[in-house]
Each structure stands twice: as C-alpha cells, then as structure tokens.
Description:
The complex is a heterodimer of chains A (about 180) and B (about 350). With about 180 residues, chain A is of the alpha+beta class. Chain A has a single domain (about 15-170), classed as Muramoyl-pentapeptide Carboxypeptidase, domain 2 (2-Layer Sandwich), CATH 3.30.1380.20. Chain A is built from five helices and five strands; from the N terminus they run H-H-H-E-E-H-E-E-E-H. In chain B, strand 9 (about 275-285) and strand 10 (about 290-295) form a beta hairpin. Chain B has two domains: about 5-110, PAS domain (Beta-Lactamase, 2-Layer Sandwich), CATH 3.30.450; about 210-350, 2-Layer Sandwich (Heat Shock Protein 90), CATH 3.30.565.10. Chain B has helices at about 5-15, 35-40, 65-70, 115-175, 180-205, 215-230, 250-270, 315-320; strands spanning about 20-25, 30-35, 80-85, 85-95, 105-110, 210-215, 235-240, 245, 275-285, 290-295, 325-330, 330-340. Chain B is rod-shaped, with a radius of gyration of 43 Å. The chains are: A alpha+beta (about 180), B alpha+beta (about 350). Chains A and B meet through helix 2, helix 4 and strand 5 of A and helix 3 of B. Chain B: Its EC number is 2.7.13.3. Chain B: This is histidine kinase. Chain B: Keywords: ATP-binding, Kinase, Nucleotide-binding, Phosphoprotein, Transferase.
Amino acid sequence: MAEPxxxxxxxxxxxxxxxxxxxxxxxxxxxxxxxxxxxGYISTVGGQVGLWINQSYREALGKPKLDAEAxxxxxxxxxxxxxxxxxxxxxxxxxxxxxxxxxxxGEMVLGRTSLCMMTSNVFGRISADNLxxxxxxxxxxxxKGDPGCRVVVHLRPNDEAPPDAREYYQxxxxxxxxxx
Amino acid sequence: xTTLNEAQIADxxxxxxxxxxxxxxLDGAVLYSNAAARNAFGLxxxxxxxxxxxxxxxxxxxxxxxxxxxxxxxxNWIPAIFYRGDEAVHARARGMRAKGGGAPxxxxxxxADATTQFxxxxxxxxxxxxxxxxxxxxxxxxxxSVAVSKVLERELVHRVKNNLAVVSALLNQQARSSGDEIVTxxxxxxxxxxxxxxxxxxxxxxxxxxEVVNVADLVVQLAAGIRTTLxxxxxxxxxxTQMAVVHVDVALPLALLVNELVTSAITHAxxxxxxxxxxxxxxxxxxxxxIRVADDGVGHPSGAKGAPRExxxxxxxxxxxxxxIDRVTGDGTEWVLRxxxxxxxxxxxxx
Lengths: 180, 351
C-alpha cells in the first residue's frame, strides 16, 4: 500500500509556495526583460508596498508622521514580521545602517538580486515619506552571495551622489489622497 | 573660439541625441525636451522654448498621473510604454529632485524596442525585396530588348550582305559588257572590293555574329570569291589559316587589304608566266595577327624612285587597323601584314 499523499514529507506550504512563485517570477523577469528592467518593475511594486506599510504603521501607532527613531524601528520590525532578521547597526542625523542575517525570501533569494529592490524601495519609501529624503545603498546582500545584508539609508541629499544612486523623494500628496 | 562648460556640452549632446529625453512635472507639463522627444511625443515647441504637455499620452492600464507619481518618488527607472492612438513610445521613467525642494519631477527617456526594431527591419527588407524584384523585372526587359536588338542586327547584316552581293554582281555584269578594257578593269576592281565587304557580312551572318569575325573564315571566303571572279585558272590561290577573332571594324578594312594584295598579285606577279601560285596565310603571333600574301611571280611594279610600290589603298587601310606592312622580295613577292589582336577594339571611323 502506497504512503498516503497527505503524509508525504516535502517542503511545501503556502509560505514556500509564494516565495517560490516570487523567485520564479523575478527570475523570469530578469531573463526576459533584463536585470535593469526587472529591478524597475519590482521597484514599482516595492514603492507601492512601502506606501502601504508606512500608512499601516502610522495608523497603528496613531502618528501622522514618524521620526527617525521610529522609522528605524519600523524597518527592523516589518522585516521581523515577514521572516527577516534585520537589526540597526548605527543611526545618526545623516544615515541609518542596518544589518541582516536572514532574508524573508529565504534561500529563494539567492541569485535574484532584483528582489532586493523590495527592501530598497520599502526602506526608502518609509524613510523619504517621513523624513523627506532617502538614498539607499545595498552594500552587501544575501541575494548576491554575501553572508548577510548591509543596508545604508542616507537621509540627506548629496549632489555628489552617483547618477545611478537609488534615491527616494517624499510622496507628492494631492488633495484627493486626503479623501482616501 | 567659444569655450563650453560641462553643462553646456551635456546640453548640446542631449539636444541632438537620438534617444527621446524629456522632463515633465506631475501634471505632464513638459519642462525640457530634446528634438527626439518632441518628434516621438508630437510636441510643438513654442517661442519661449516650452513644449506643451504629454497629457494626451497614457498607459494601457494605468492613468498617466498615477505613473508620473509612481515614477517621481524614486530614482529607480520604471519601464513604461506610452500610447496615443496607434502610436507607441517605449520608454522608462524615474524621479528627479526639483531644485528648491518642490515636488519631484519625472525624467522620461525612450528605449530601444525589440518589436519596433523588428518591424522596422521587416519593413526595410520588404522594401529591399521590392527593389530587387523591380531590378529583376527591368533586367529581364533589358535582356529581352538586347535579344531583339541582336536579332535585328543579324537581320541587318544578312540584308547588307545580300545587297552588297547584288551590287557586286551588277558591277561584274557591267564590266563584262563594257567593251572597254580600262572600264572593265575599273568595274571589276570595284566589284571585287564590294564583294570583299560582302564577305565580311557573310561570315558574320553564317556565324550569327554582329561584332566579331574569325580571320580564318574571312580569308578562306575572300579567296574563294576572288578565285571565282578574278583569278584565272593558271594561278593557284591557296590559303593556310589559323583562327583569330577580330572586331568587325577591323575585319572590313582587313578584307579590303587582303583583296587589294591578292588582286595586285594576280594582276602583276605573273606577267609572262604560264602559271603561278599565291599563298595567303593567317596566324596569331603573340598579341598580333599576321597575314601573309606571297606569290612566286616576277615581282611588282616599282615606284618613281625604284622602291616597291604598294597597291593602292593599302597604306590607308593599314593605318586604319593600326598595323604595319612589310614587303619581302626574293622568289616572288611576299607582303607581311601585322596588326593588334583585340576582338573588343572598335574604330571610330569604320569603312
């Protein structure tokens, strides 16, 4: 008698399924449209997710705007909630430096650097919308094979920044946004 | 000399760059555009340099303001295809900090689109194929025209040959009935010359050619004609020939030359002799054709200073074909004619 299918030992649940879906989707994007365009698409999604998360924390904390300390705490907390292991290495008026030992995408992120645009855009969006500006540098990433991630969020514009720097500007609210 | 700073150089390069580049605000108003962008988005620049708006453009499933705001909030490039009716511009957009801290702006640049490139190349290939087909059609028409022209030329050669043969026959007939030896000789000479020209056309006609003549055929045919009209039975007219091809413009004076030399030999070389022999040979010597007319007779008349006298017309005809002629005397007389062997050579003033 064969072993019942329901008792089969395999690593498959909803979380693994969606992470696998995202891995294959980002891999397909990178392969079809190229890494740069794939990062563009994922950045668009990351920006929207960042807006949503920022709004959620503001509502939950009852604050219309978060200060720098709260922004750093939110970045660490949101990653913890989705399976990451981020921690604040340092923070001052100019920048916040985060470290990470575990990616929310798990091993599915290996070789999928475009998925790092989620972190860049979510951190950048939350920081820019609350503090006015952010420039995110992904110094080290698990996706490209580093043992951990090191993410620097600069908070002041720098005209000397390279042209391809990942900058985030405050979301331009319109009267219609207030109605939502 | 005008000195440009980096910003001015960048502005010059950008304004002439083939990639569309424009900066818009969040309402789609164009703040900067290069020529390629104005062309791609159909913008008209006013006197103040402003170039209107891209309000008329949109994305398939996202309103333009939503895209502009999504692009404006970061420096990450967002792929976007702008549509307006059947027009499409494949582009990408990113945010830019506005000077003075105002709302961010949106930088849009066009990108190469594989589909558009493919369609462009396919169109170019279609146009090239149409041109090739047109050239093939024209080529076939020209070939047909050349073929018709060849047929007409051959028909002309045939008719000329017949007409010359008729004229020659008439002159011979007139010669026989003139009753005056001088007139008879003159008419026979004229008939012989015309016959030699007719022989050239006969060789052309037999070989279905209009431009080149085989010297061997020409010499044999000339000798045959002379043998039947001018050469008495006591004189043997013999030919030994090698094949050599010459242009018809050379063949005509050459035929007259051979005719003159042979008829001169018949007339003068065997006076007082019961019989004689004339040998006409043709050969190719390197880049030249060599014709020899040799008799075993008594010799030809001399000129005023005792030098051998060339038959009439000979010098002019030799000049015409760019050749040379030598006379060798011994047991009889031998004329050696040499001229360049070039079947492509045509002369501006053929006989």
